[in-house]
Amino acid sequence: MTETKEFLYPEKSLSKASAGDRVACELRMRIISGVIESGTILSENKLAADFAVSRSPIREALKILASENIIRLERMGAVVSGLTEKEIHEIYDVRLLIETFVFERLIKMETKQLSRELSKILEMMKVAIKYRDADEFALQDVLFHETIIRSINHSHMLMIWDNLKPVMECLILLSMRLRIKEEYEDFTRVIRNHEIYIEAIESKDRELMLESLHLNFDDVQVQGTVDDLWMSQQMLAKGAVQEND
Amino acid sequence: MTETKEFLYPEKSLSKASAGDRVACELRMRIISGVIESGTILSENKLAADFAVSRSPIREALKILASENIIRLERMGAVVSGLTEKEIHEIYDVRLLIETFVFERLIKMETKQLSRELSKILEMMKVAIKYRDADEFALQDVLFHETIIRSINHSHMLMIWDNLKPVMECLILLSMRLRIKEEYEDFTRVIRNHEIYIEAIESKDRELMLESLHLNFDDVQVQGTVDDLWMSQQMLAKGAVQEND
DNA sequence: CTTATAATACTTGTATACAAGTATCCTTGT
DNA sequence: ACAAGGATACTTGTATACAAGTATTATAAG
Fold it and tell me: CA-CA 20 to 30 A from A127: which of A86, A110, A240, B201?
């Protein structure tokens, strides 16, 4: 069938990961990128054969993917849900919810060390751009936001993030890979948004924070992901799709 | 060792559940109730022997519990984190976050059918009280809130709820079991709070909603759970505990 | 008596085997 | 030709087996 021999997920990231995690990451990328179409029914045995592992890691991966709501575990087979446009907006909702909550905590905290960490990550992102490393850039971008969330030491907010993160990571990875080729100057704007984010944290300026948050979303998420990526998913996957619901 | 032969989790609820789910539910109850102390190291093999199942369902259960943050999967063994008072407050935070978000959506929606469903659940709760069925009451209470969350059709809010729900369920179960014996009149107050909740939804009254939400939390959650339950956990588990950090 | 090294008894992760259940398809009877 | 029922080829869930790695313990040497 689909002999997709090359892996979509950056292999360096899962050097010490288990087979289950590797499969989960790769399947996630294929599903979100559209390589595996929505509606496809995944069989444990078939996946095990495809990935050349046993059913145990496959089951583990499917459980993970199901908890992220990109597949549904039914009686017979796991059916791929993919990401509808609606879901991407929902992710937007959740990020907004989390990050505004986090910021409310941040303004009551000492944030010197945090802003140092963030600055470091930002430097890394700049280097990644310099060397046209979209994956590295995306991963650092994710890390940037995770670092912020971690800083308030709220285990349940972190839980929510942990659930969201893999999908976010996929979206950003795909988005950045696309844009690094042509829309190069986008990246400097993304960097600038992150700088504003840091400034907002340092000055504990609620207004500035919200502004940068929205800039960040509007830029990276909506404009980038929803539109470009959404198209690209279809482009990459096949030629054209008709999908009007 | 600990020959806890009786099960804490209501067995009727997991009639069609898999062994893994059963183990997860039971372990969750034991951990949250304090029967299994925080810090305990759980071994897959030992658990498999205790529950008379193989390691496969145990692994599944541990994965679930880890995703709920009540255990940590480390190199050697799964260490029990339990629920600190801080964590219970964090759960409070998340519920507040979710339910206020949900309400904002609700006021833009048709809620006639929802309030009918909620009324039905409320009737069930009253019956449960009448027959002194704490478990049934607790389960319906959880269902009440889940129904509200489901009504806005936001899959990611539902995801967050799905993560939170098992722990919430445990907390409410334990709390209700304790209070149904003595603090009987508490239940009528809980019922009243839920009625206010429904009224708020019907009238789409933001103020009333927030009030009932806080009442609900303050009553069931904080006063009930954090104080009573917290003590009871310790009482139930052993005689006395010294724990001052 | 202390320290270093090796053996042992754990641990997890993966593979494989088996049982029970369900959909599909083919056969058979009308 | 068509409907009904049974065989077959799937599916999941669970059990067991195996491999690789880690901590602990015991033993032996200094």
Answer: A110
